[in-house]
Fold:
Amino acid sequence: MKKIHAQPPEDHTGIKIKKTSKTGVGMPAILSSLEHMRKYMNAADALKVSTKLNQKGGIDCPGCAWPDPDDDRSRLGEYCENGIKAIAEEATKKRLKPDFFAKHSIAELSEWSDFQLGKTGRLTEPMILEEGVDHYQPISWEKAFQLIGHELKGLDSPDEAVFYTSGRTSNEAAFLYQLFVREYGTNNLPDCSNMCHESSGKGLSQTVGIGKGSVRLTDLYEAEVIIIMGQNPGTNHPRMLSALEKCKLNGGKIITVNPLPEAGLMNFTNPQSPVKMATGGTKLTDLFLQVKVNGDVALLKAMMLLLLEEEKNAPGKVLDKDFIISKTNGYEDFINDLKKYSLDQLCEASGLSKSEILRAVDLIKYKEKIIICWAMGLTQHQNGVDNIREVVNLLLMKGSIGKRGAGTCPVRGHSNVQGDRTMGIWEAPPKKLLDKIESVFGFKPPREHGFAVVDAIQAMYDKKAKVFFAMGGNFISATPDTELTAKALQNCDLTVHVSTKLNRSHLIHGKRALILPCLGRTEQDYQAGGEQFVSVENSMGVVHTSQGVLPPSSEHLLSEPAIVAGMAMATLGNRTKIDWINMISNYDNIRNAIEAIIPGFENYNERVRQPEGFYLPNGAREGTFNTKSGKAEFTINHFTDFELNSNEYLMITIRSHDQYNTTIYGLDDRYRGIYNERRVVLMNKKDMKKNNLNKKESVNLVSEYDGVERVARNFLVVPYDIPEGCVATYFPEANVLVPLGLQARVSKTPASKSVVIRINKR
Ligand code: SF4
Structure:
């Protein structure tokens, strides 16, 4: 049997290296959006979808989870370039029919790049891969559900099955999915947030009593200072730049903390403002702190030490002592620990000078409306949870939470990843949720916690889990330790993917495999009760509707809720307590069930129909902290100081500008000046010189963990403005280097942002 490649091909595609951009968005973003619509969509669909995208009662963008304005939405277009790329990807005019699979074997397709696989068009029919066969074939929905039911019922225990969720799944589908999985008998509900903001959830729950951010969109407009750490919104949350511009126009200041000088954070050319387009845009960042990889806790500690000094010089002007006394717990222990560090030690560990850090302290010392925003650059480290808790320590010292213009702002990268967790997609469900399910539905849900993503991979690798079901996503490309994860999936008896497009996970399969094509966000969803809408929750806890406008791209597609219902009936048969047919006949029935189980969804069906949706309760936003002590908790945190030898580097995996998670829209990374190539390693020129490496030289990247070497071959060296000792690569190409065991303490989030690697000449 020919080798099936779990990693993207190692060939190069013809790199061009140009100047990095000095500003984000602007005309290039408009042209790129138009080009994607022209190339992949038919004109009528492009117009129909783009005029409804993120509008009230319209389509929720399947990209990131950046909120829409509560008030007026832009008539010109309430979306960004990457939002358009996301819908052009889903509403493509290309169709992927069964004859394609008859022509192309699994092994052959595995030699294609992720870009090529993704551009093959929308899946049109359910497909099965029988054991020992290397071509997918069509299968009926009925037979597909029977096969799933048969395999699940045949397991010795429900805990031998894994049910993964990707963050695009709607509230309605996610709620039904967890209900089915728990009635089936397991809590094996790993999801993509295990790999991204789980560290945020853990760190925030411990300190302020809720695993979500506390700010609203309007708070960013009113903030006096916004600190942006480990986040690149220019590519990953582009509409955030408009909010930052509003903050600047209102006199606010922006501090950016990142190993890379990301163009979108330095300057923003608002495409909706002819004046800004003509005059070069708005300068965003006032102070850029080019921290070394994983130097964030050291930086925050240094800032807090200096704030203590400032407080001594101006008592009562710097720290919010009233807030600290009345609203927090653990301050003394925290301060005693903080004083153990020397400023020199912290400057060294952060990679920054005292004067740089002092400038940051000068910007915040007399301010209280302070917001800290972050993304994967803080969460994907062994000390990921420590990073989040240290962010909270700084805000608590300043009393900058639970008031307007201040607070925490973890920015979610997937449109409904927060909603899925709220719906119960959680391997470690709270007792309250399980008690409610038992009392409302009359079955006993399992109480033992299930597998997070890294546990699920290990269980499949150890052959303790035999069935893998994925609701969306591209598991093999999103997860660490690619070759090990591939073996894990290939150990399964059955792998099932609910998808809209072909991706590499369909090629890394169990003995048998199924691809179940579902409706996308842009498509109309008709059920027995008529046309349906779904709902999602954005990064700021707003729940609102999303309704498709295009006819389904194939008559054989089912909605995600209908797929769950089909699987549930085939698996549970007469033992089920749920009327699945009724649930999916009208999604109001699902929302009524959600209202009965999940706090904060009172009058769900009525309130979700409000044009702007509704905010979920958020104690931290109101200054009420639902922790054990009933107060916000100061905590003691640690940072990892890496001792690197001369040929070792700390690698961060990043997205290019033409990428959304594992979806590759194109091969360019316009802001960073890298074109037509993804196998690149961004290096500091001094490090290149020290190791006698040249621009565009081909190298192998090697990581070693637990005595196992992992190699990513044939990467091209790109000189870049990055701190010495640090390098950056794109995922999924570099995920093979991230050991499964390298995880954040407590949250088990893969530590993809601080992996020690060697760079070897080829
Ligand atoms: S900012 Fe995010 S949610 Fe908004 S249009 Fe862009 S990708 Fe979509």
User: Anything to note?
Assistant: The chain is about 35% helix and 15% strand. The chain has a mean pLDDT of 97.
